[in-house]
Amino acid sequence: MICTLNKFILCAIILSCFLNADIGHNNVVYEGKAGDIPLRVFVQLPGVVPGLADISVRVFADGVNKVTVQPQKQDKDRKSKSPPADVAEPVQGENNLFSAQLWLMDFGSYNLDMKIYQGQRVERVSIPVNSIATKVAVMNQATSSILWVLLGVLFFGGINIIRVGYKDSTEPPGTEPGQTKRKRSYIVTAITLLFFSAIIYGGKNWWDKIDLAYQQNIFQSLENKVNILNNGQADHISIEIVDELWVQGRIADLIPDHGKIMHMYIISDTYEQLAHIHPTRTDDRNVFIAKMPPFENGTYHLYMDLTHETGFSHTMTNTFTYNTENTIYDPTILTIERDPDDSWMLNTNEDRITWKEKQPAYNAGDDIALQFKVSNNGTPAVLEPYISMGGHAALLKNDRSVFVHLHPVGTISMASQEMFQENYTQGVLDKEDICFFGFADDSTGNYFNSNTSPNGEVNFPAIKLGMPGNYAIWVQVKSAGEVITQKFDFEVIL
Predict the structure, then answer these.
(1) pLDDT, tens digit, for every residue of 373-426?
(2) pLDDT for position 475
(3) In 188-248, beta strands by DSSP E
(4) Are 81 and 33 in contact, with CB atoms under 8 Å apart?
(5) Which CATH number fits domain 224-493: 3.30.830.10, 3.10.129.10, 2.60.40.1220, 3.90.1150.10?
(6) Which of 462, 461, 489 is nearest to 365 (CA)?
(7) What are phi and psi of 135, to 5 degrees?
(8) Could you tell me the residue ranges of all domains in the chain?
(9) Alpha-carbon gap, residue 320 to 333, rounded angstroms
């Protein structure tokens, strides 16, 4: 564990309820453009704070001679506190691949301000990342053993120095101390032993308290309550954020992402049913409500993506049972109209999306290519953006320890990116400059400039999964006004 300053501990407590925008997946993937230069950025976050993040930048253009990355974090007065930019060095043996390491020293939301130098041109792009503790860094056994030996040497060596110093320091050279002096030196040795032991004991108790506080504040979702309500006409799902920090106003309020205040995935315990819906915020600012999808009775798992005014994004989770016994009759609930972008899958029989070059199993840590082609009656479908993206994907491990909401632009929150990028565009921001829809041309691999894909292709950035096990990924695209959802199963092995 690396957390020695009170400031960091306080921040950990305040942000303890936050998760990353994904669960169990601590990496950030971004695929888009800096100006008109296509690039792919992979950020491996340290999982401890402060910690060292590894950044790789793949540029899909020639003539790029320099890449710099600067971590920017703003205080409550929106003043940026940033170290100098680091130069991402070219990776030996690779073309147009650059690598850098950056220290993230504090908790919260960071903007990685990236500059791409192509000749005399300089293009910029913002990559939002969440700096949060997701693990405890464990010291290896060899280092631990060495430190214990050094502690023993210092402990007993210090005691012996004080003993000898008291016994011999006041004696003339060449003379031996008397019996009384020697006896007193033993008393001094005992007092020193007790004093040093008390220091070590007190230090250990102090450290244990810090360690406990750190561990208790890792990976906790905002506490929330789920109810199924019926007004006599339809079932509604209600989510109330009841976390103390939220209720007390100590957490920044929410901002829309893709025009939605909340993106919610509801996934059945059997993985056979999935809904991607967008609850409405009620007059009670802590409560969000949406019409329940036409699901069967059963157990369901919730994953709710939120973005805050600070740029921090995270995922709330919960589990509920949907049946008559757990439905609350409340005639005061007004019927909520469905969001036009709500969609769901009630079975796994859809077969209009092809995962190109899909493998039955992937090695842990390898790049998993996520390239898909959609067809209608055997011909390529004309795709259009779905919720401002070429597609959406939800990835879930069979034990629900990993959840990723993925876009063609990557795993980042677009609202966070827009907020950070506006800081240096002075409010003049064209979303198309930072939004990559994920539509790719079959023959050339170039990106379409329009917001449609006539060849049915949609691509997501390759993803790395380090935890072996069985996974499912649901891919969602839109064609002719219809949202198509299809599930794919795959395995990650060691």
Answers:
(1) 999 888 999 998 888 888 999 999 999 989 998 888 777 777 677 767 666 555
(2) 95
(3) 224-230, 235-241
(4) no
(5) 2.60.40.1220
(6) 462
(7) -160, 170
(8) 6-131, 141-216, 224-493
(9) 20
| Helix, coil or strand: residue 85 | coil
Instruction: Please state, as a whole number, how many other Cβ atoms lie within 10 Å of the Cβ of residue 181.
Output: 14
Nearest partner of 114 among 148, 67, 158, judged by Cα: 67
Task: Give, in degrees to the nearest 5, the angle at Cα 64 between 62 and 68.
Answer: 150
Give the span between the Cα atoms of 405 and 77, in whole angstroms: 31
Sign of CA dihedral 258, 264, 268, 271: positive
Q: How far apart are CA 374 and CA 384, in angstroms?
A: 12
Q: What is the CATH number of domain 6-131?
A: 2.60.40.1930
Question: What is the per-residue pLDDT across 63-110, written as a single tens digit (0 to 9) for each?
Answer: 999 999 988 876 544 455 678 888 999 998 888 999 998 888 777 778
What amino acid occupies position 247? V
Rounded CA-CA distance 406/69 in Å is 23
What gap in Å lies between CA 373 and CA 66, rounded to an integer? 35
What are the structure tokens assigned to 318, written together?
């919960």
Query: Contact at 8 Å (CB) between 358 and 285?
Result: no
What is the identity of the amino acid at 59? V
Residue 490 CB coordination number (10 Å): 17
Judge if 6-131 and 224-493 fold alike in CATH terms.
yes
pLDDT 10s digits, 185-236: 888 899 999 999 999 999 989 988 877 766 665 656 789 999 999 998 999 9
In terms of phi and psi (left: phi > 0; alpha: psi -120 to 50; beta: otherwise), the region of 480 is: left
* Closest listed residue to residue 477, CA positions, set 402, 379, 396, 407: 407
Residue 439 — pLDDT band, cuts 50, 70, 90?
A: low
Assign 330 to helix, strand or coil: coil
Element at 355 (helix H, strand E): strand 353-355
**DSSP string computed for 346-394:** S-S----EEETT--SEEETTSEEEEEEEEEETTEE--EE-BTTBS-EEE
Q: Residue 136 — very low, low, confident or very high, per pLDDT cuts 50/70/90?
A: low
Question: pTM for the complete prediction?
Answer: 0.72
d(CA 208, CA 66): 45
